[in-house]
UniProtKB/TrEMBL annotation:
The lineage of its organism: Bacteria, Bacillati, Bacillota, Bacilli, Lactobacillales. Keywords: Cell membrane, Membrane, Transmembrane, Transmembrane helix, Transport. It is a multi-pass membrane protein. Pfam families: AA_permease_2. This is Amino acid permease. The chain crosses the membrane at residues 12-31, 37-57, 122-145, 157-180, 200-218, 239-261, 291-310, 342-363, 369-395, 416-435, 447-472. It is found in: Cell membrane.
């Protein structure tokens, strides 16, 4: 009894903080401000109410229902559906990390540029040269990950907490700068309501995927449901607290961005260099030079390196460690004497190399390439959220078969409708997110090239998942 009591130690505020650190970051503020300007304030409110809150509460119910599931979303799908669908959920979870892995070397190089040069001129270098460097960096980390680099987990934790602190510091210093230092507010009419009202046109809807990308991923905290004291009460309270913390951070961070950058004239390199420029300007306001920018660059470099190493290994092991031989060929499941999925690493290397090299052939300029790859991530990464909503819909079809200490909604039809809404909204955001964010008239050939890649990449990555079961089936038939 004592052991059981000790495992239920988390309260709602512990859950909120754990989730906040894993879900939120300054990059979410910078990237969405870069795409929408100050109208993102209203966008944040809408996305939190209509999407983020129900999403997190669904995760709470799924986590509480399947307490012993170790495979995350794929385990949920296996419980409510079939092993085949569970395989596709695991495949999706892994394969959406491929563009993410391709983008991380860029982030390392940009952070290094600010750290050693003190500026963001790196984004003006030829994209072919930069992508060649990115390929070398990625292959190096692929090799290191295959050798096992567990010390990076600790470094990543420290760097992650440092990034979290810097994000909060940015908000505090940014909002107080005009009063404390007398610095001018960069955006005019910040006291006018019209400054924050979006124009709900086609262009606006193409930016929603970045918002979805920013607030997704709360399923990572589902294992903590069963470690929460009185989960039916504390977990939803923690999720609501998380939503409040995220929306306050998003709103305050966006206001701070508006004070530092002119929302009506957003720099083209804001996604790549915005956070560094912001800390550099804050350092000048508070007369500490580049100190804040350097601290942020160091923290971001370490956090990115750790994320790159961990994201090479962890999603792949989720796919392969519990792989069903009916769907994953023997060759891909092969492990070395050290337990390293050798061929899985090779497949990762091939796919990431393709995404690093091919875009550089048709997208000129490192900044354009950085923006494109970040937007591709906002299209591809949310595809894994679809499985969360599908699992929730299927669960609500069979509520009588499953018990949960926490219920988001007790009515199966209502629960199914909420899950369907989030599923459709995510798909809608991903599809419209494929539209390139560059001006068509400025470079029509580049626009069409980016659109083709944005459509082809998700189809290619998800489509590969259909090949493996066919190979596995053929192997099974040959053995029999």
């Amino acid at each position: 009894m004592a052991d059981k009591k000790n495992t239920k130690q988390l309260f709602w505020y512990n859950i909120a903080l754990l989730a906040f650190v894993s879900v939120w970051g300054l990059g979410n503020v910078v990237n969405n401000f870069a795409q929408e300007g100050l109208v993102v304030v209203v966008s944040w409110i809408l996305i939190m109410v209509l999407y983020f809150v129900p999403y997190t509460l669904m995760v709470g119910q799924m986590g509480a229902t399947f307490k012993d599931a170790e495979g995350g979303v794929s385990s949920w799908i296996k419980e409510v559906s079939t092993k085949r669908l569970a395989y596709f959920a695991a495949w999706t979870y892994w394969v959406v990390h491929v563009p993410y892995l391709a983008q991380k070397p860029q982030a390392i190089l940009i952070a290094g540029s600010w750290l050693f040069q003190g500026n963001g001129n790196f984004v003006n270098i030829s994209s072919k040269i930069v992508q060649s460097l990115c390929l070398v960096i990625f292959l190096l980390f692929l090799y290191l990950a295959s050798r096992g680099i567990t010390t990076l987990n600790r470094i990543g934790t420290i760097a992650g907490m440092s990034m979290f602190i810097m994000s909060l510091l940015f908000i505090v210093l940014g909002l107080s700068a005009p009063a404390m230092t007398g610095s001018a507010i960069a955006t005019a009419n910040m006291n006018h309501l019209s400054t924050y009202v979006p124009k709900f046109d086609f262009k606006y809807f193409t930016t929603i995927s970045m918002l979805v990308f920013a607030v997704g991923g709360s399923e990572k905290i589902s294992p903590y449901v069963n470690k929460t004291k009185d989960p039916a009460k504390n977990f939803p309270k923690g999720m609501i607290a998380l939503a409040i913390m995220v929306v306050v951070s998003a709103l305050m961070g966006s206001f701070a961005m508006g004070m530092i950058f002119d929302a009506k004239h957003i720099p083209a390199d804001l996604m790549a260099n915005g956070a560094y420029v912001a800390f550099q300007r804050l350092g000048n306001f508070y007369h500490v030079g580049n100190a804040l920018m350097v601290i942020y660059a160091i923290a971001n470099t370490m956090a990115t390196i750790a994320a790159l190493a961990v994201s090479i290994d962890a999603p792949l092991r989720i796919l392969l460690d519990d792989a069903d031989p009916k769907f994953v060929p023997k060759a891909l499941r092969k492990k070395s004497s050290d337990g390293v999925p050798v061929n899985g690493y090779i497949l990762t290397g091939i796919l990431v190399s393709i995404i690093i090299i091919i875009p550089a052939l048709g997208i000129s300029g490192t900044n354009n390439l950085y923006n494109w790859l970040l937007n591709l991530n906002s299209v591809v990464m949310p595809l894994r959220y679809l499985w969360v909503f599908l699992a929730f819909m299927l669960l609500n079809k069979h509520l009588d078969k499953f018990h949960s200490d926490y219920m988001f909604v007790k009515n199966g039809k209502v629960g199914f409708a909420i899950g369907l809404w989030c599923f459709v909204f995510t798909a809608f955001a991903c599809i419209l997110g494929m539209v390139p964010k560059v001006v068509y008239a400025a470079n029509p050939s580049s626009w069409w090239f980016q659109l083709a890649l944005n459509i082809a990449m998700p189809i290619f990555l998800i489509g590969l998942g259909f090949i493996l079961p066919a190979i596995a089936k053929r192997q099974h038939e040959e053995l029999n």
